[in-house]
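Homework-ish question, so no full write-ups if that breaks the rules, but can someone show me the predicted structure for this set?
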Amino acid sequence: MAPRLVDIAKHLNISVSTVSRVINGKDRVSDETREKVLKAIKELNYSPNEIARSLRNRSSKTIGIIVPDISNQFFALLSKGAEAVAKNNGYLLILCNSDYDEDMEKEYLEMLTQKQVDGIVIATVCKDEKYFERILDSSIPTVFVDNLPQIKRNYNFVTIDNEKAAFDLTQHLIDKGYKEIAVITGKLQETSALERLEGWKRAMKENGLKINNDLIGIGDFKIESGYKIMKKMLENGKKPEALLAANNFIAYGAIRAIREKDLRVPEDIYVVCFDATDDTGLMSINLPSIVQPAEKIGEIALDIIIKRLNNKEFKIFDKVILEPTFINVMN
Amino acid sequence: MAPRLVDIAKHLNISVSTVSRVINGKDRVSDETREKVLKAIKELNYSPNEIARSLRNRSSKTIGIIVPDISNQFFALLSKGAEAVAKNNGYLLILCNSDYDEDMEKEYLEMLTQKQVDGIVIATVCKDEKYFERILDSSIPTVFVDNLPQIKRNYNFVTIDNEKAAFDLTQHLIDKGYKEIAVITGKLQETSALERLEGWKRAMKENGLKINNDLIGIGDFKIESGYKIMKKMLENGKKPEALLAANNFIAYGAIRAIREKDLRVPEDIYVVCFDATDDTGLMSINLPSIVQPAEKIGEIALDIIIKRLNNKEFKIFDKVILEPTFINVMN
DNA sequence: CACATGTGTAAAAACGTTTACACAAAATTA
DNA sequence: TAATTTTGTGTAAACGTTTTTACACATGTG
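A: Not a homework solution, just the prediction itself:
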């Protein structure tokens, strides 16, 4: 059995409170007793029970994060950034992978709440307004990332301007001379999916290009989705000249479908997307991409939480909109 | 303030224990009271405080996982697998990113212990035997993944046969006619790094090829490492015909260095590596790779923990060695 | 020498649960 | 009908901390 405060106390024939005081170091203890206690702690190899502390202190020293897919580099980096800042402030990070499932996400939220997490970062896939209200009414500081609740109310978030980014990416395609530009995006209830579609639309319109519904694909942000939609497009004889994929996974799936039809990227279909980071030095070869500062997003989200935790007055740090980077190595 | 058990009890004029019993559902309560309580729980929107439960039950219902770099697809997938199984069994996952730093890893272990986690999955970067002993002496079920402690004692682990995998990969290069084959690996205190180097060595020897120390690079598993080592090799005029990179990141870095010298992959230097998964459909183009079943590894690691948690007799499930897949799309 | 002030420590009450124990009332058995 | 068992509930003691309160004692002050 791991030694407890009371074991140290008994061992030294002093009271628990004294031992506690030297551990927490913020109350008066004589140097002599402090030494004794510190020595005993070493000897008995005492280590505080954080659960008991949490109960007493009403703070679990943990932050929850809910992402749709941790195996997506974007969310992995985001989590990494969040985790680092959490750790630096004495918090541990509880990772939840919602798998793009609304019910799962809600379940996780409930679990995190029960676990008394001190803060939550959430890349939501839900649209349910009641659910968002519930989150924001709770006393747990919450920051939304990537995907935002579409509600009137103010809340904390960190993201990029998706509409503009998609616009820029599409403009890039148009500037290169492409006219038949397809777009594949995620579920429109997710703002990142919706706004990217809208950016594409605006670019098409502003450049006087026809918006062809056959070239609009709406699926989800998974590889399979990109694959199936592109495959169908091609099999329906709707080969576009270029494709805007609303995230990296869609692009990967689409490229697989393209190659299966013995077409080449980018020669036959020029593909651009979001968040195909160039870390690998491989992906970016022919995949111009808008890359979000994922790690930064996670860091800032956690900064906001920590700030709110330390400073009760500071309630709504309205919004942080970061600048993404346009990566286009081969041009 | 969130309602507590006692609030429900008072509201109904019954005792806390009765309320607790209906919540936990495994003790006798009359149907009538049960209904009442359930109704009150709904009305007052009660949700149990998991911290208090943890303290009382001596189980935090959390599992800790320590990985060197969550932004590496391999560890992201591993975590994803672990998380899914944890969740299915009512546990949440605490994610720790050691950043390949030994002290950081130890710090995390301490934090997890204090947090009373019920189990630990760890991809260690340490070599310190004392540290491993401490882990294994503790009462917390621990499973090692990827990288293994080099100690006599039995412990749980899930990994692949790295030596054989590296041998196979090298043999593949040799079969393709390459003779001057470089290898870049991580710190040799990590078994995955060491064993991959040894697999390369054995393949070279068994095929009667010269082992040229100039073509052995030892760094770490980060991109920069692959970049610097390959750059130096090339600048020293030691251009190999092919390269075995001990992980994906090393390969990415090396490829960047190769390209900077205006050389092409695979025409000028043929590169193979570990864990460049083909999920993207992009990386694998010219990068034959041994891909570990990362998600599976995480799942099995968690299975072991759950089993040990549920069945006190089952203490040491010796080892699980999984088969990796050889991916070589373009051949 | 009375009195305030300062210092170190102990005792005890939380924090929100679960559960062993006790016990009355109801149901069953002899 | 008496004895026994079953059923439902309440009481109180944990789980391992932190912190408030109180108090004993030393030191300094007029």
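Now go work out the reasoning yourself. Hint: The longest helix of chain A spans residues 294-310.
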